[in-house]
């Protein structure tokens, strides 16, 4: 586990994870909180987070650890410390020789599993740059992840881009020409029951009730808002497309409550449990 920014809630949550799971999982903590004032991020605290990430890569490449779980980082602080990546997802992609658009951010919760066609890009760019290929990549990665956690024949819905999935082209053609094309190709390639494009304002509720095992969202907030709304304390961020297992909690550094005993360790605990589970299957 990397502690994330040591000025945030990462260190205290890591302590709780060790207390609860330390007898079941071999845990190694990366990072240092020494000399860092809780609740007050600095360039030094961001640099500690960056160094921990680099150390995790070295350990993974030497096979000294089987998986990594990342504590939350402060992206603005990391950028000031020379970190040239939008997020930790993109960092691991680069360090393991993967293109940024070849990995997928997936959110796994008790009631909802979501894969994102795009991640940390402005909404304008996410919409303008949407391709059938990006949706197919996210769909294939989500299907693979669902199989790894025990769902043999996953049912996956693909979100539409426009209101009501475009209403047959009345509200935009992207749902017909991009999302629709991706769904057809996913069905052919996987022989799985991919459906869509589905109206994004209803599909997540349908998935939470059991109609679908997972949902492909077309941009960051389309998928993360429902995932965090439904299962904030139990949702785990998984990066698919990497040659290693990488998980993280679904929350941020929470500097405002750091050190006050208010932060829930739920998501980090679930991230460690899922990482341990995934490390035991063929990756």
Summed up:
By secondary structure, the chain is of the alpha/beta class. It has helices spanning 10-21, 43-61, 75-80, 88-95, 123-128, 132-148, 174-190, 200-208, 220-231, 266-279, and strands at 67-69, 104-108, 113-116, 156-159, 194-198, 214-217, 236-240, 245-249. Helix 6 crosses helix 7.
Summarize the topology.
Layout: H1 10-21, H2 43-61, E1 67-69, H3 75-80, H4 88-95, E2 104-108, E3 113-116, H5 123-128, H6 132-148, E4 156-159, H7 174-190, E5 194-198, H8 200-208, E6 214-217, H9 220-231, E7 236-240, E8 245-249, H10 266-279
Parallel strand pairs: 1-8, 3-6, 4-5, 4-6
Antiparallel strand pairs: 2-3, 2-7, 7-8
What features would you describe in this structure?
- With 283 residues, this protein is α/β, with parallel strands linked by helices.
- The protein contains 10 helices and 8 strands.
- An 8-stranded mixed β-sheet has the order 1-8-7-2-3-6-4-5.
- α6 (132-148) packs across α7 (174-190).
- The longest helix is centred in the first third of the chain and has 19 residues, at 43-61.
